[in-house]
Amino acid sequence: KLWNVETGELVRYFEGHTDYVASAVFSKYGEQVLTASFDTTATLWNVETGASIRSFEGHTDVVAAAVFSKDWQQVATASYDNTAKLWNVETGESIRSFEGHTDLVASAVFSTDGEQVLTASYDNTAKLWNVETGELVRSFEADPDTVATALFSRDGELVLTASYTTTPKLWNVD
After folding, report:
1. Quick one: how many helices (H) and strands (E) in the chain?
2. Which pLDDT band holds residue 142 (cuts at 50, 70, 90)?
3. How far apart are CA 97 and CA 155, in angstroms?
4. CA of 86: how far to CAs of 12, 49, 72, 77, in Å?
């Protein structure tokens, strides 16, 4: 649902997912919304009309998160099927899968330069992937902590992992 901040009124529904919506983000200029859903898809929506522009289909379990790349040309999704995927925004086609986690992937984010994707998983790791090749660059072993989310610092030199414990961890990327 889209709400007016000043009045608190409901502006628009985005109807089409068949299960819970796990996350939603605006595009750069706010003309589109990207949602991730328990129905195993991510969907791109037109903010003005509420119409679905395209769906990103290919995961076999819940899509927990969906985010835009820095140049807004790609989308990364994180899924309970133990993978993350990279998508072409214009076509909706899958570019590649990031495979290597042994449990659900809870989040995915792009690095500040857009050259890497960082995933967080319940397998107690965060993994850094090369966007161009799909290769694993580095694994951050947070054992025994389930990693719920992972983020880059503004300069891209550090990674912060948060888990279902009381201790977030800070890592050097290199």
Report:
1. 0, 17
2. confident
3. 26
4. 28, 26, 12, 7
In whole angstroms, what is the distance from residue 81 CA to residue 140 CA? 20
Q: What gap in Å lies between CA 84 and CA 118, rounded to an integer?
A: 9
The whole model's pTM is what?
A: 0.95
Q: Which residue has the tokens 């694993």?
A: 136
With contact defined as beta carbons under 8 Å apart, do 84 and 62 qualify? Answer: no
Contact 131, 115 (CB under 8 A): yes
| DSSP one-letter code for 60 | S
Which tokens belong to 81? 């099927």
Tell me 1's DSSP state.
-
Residue written as token pair 């279902």: 164
Burial degree of 48 (CB within 10 A; 0-12, 13-18, 19+): exposed
Q: How far apart are CA 105 and CA 97, in angstroms?
A: 12
The pLDDT tens digits of the residues spanning 99-136 come to 999 999 999 999 999 999 999 999 999 999 999 999 99
Torsion of CA 74, 79, 83, 85, to 10 degrees: -10
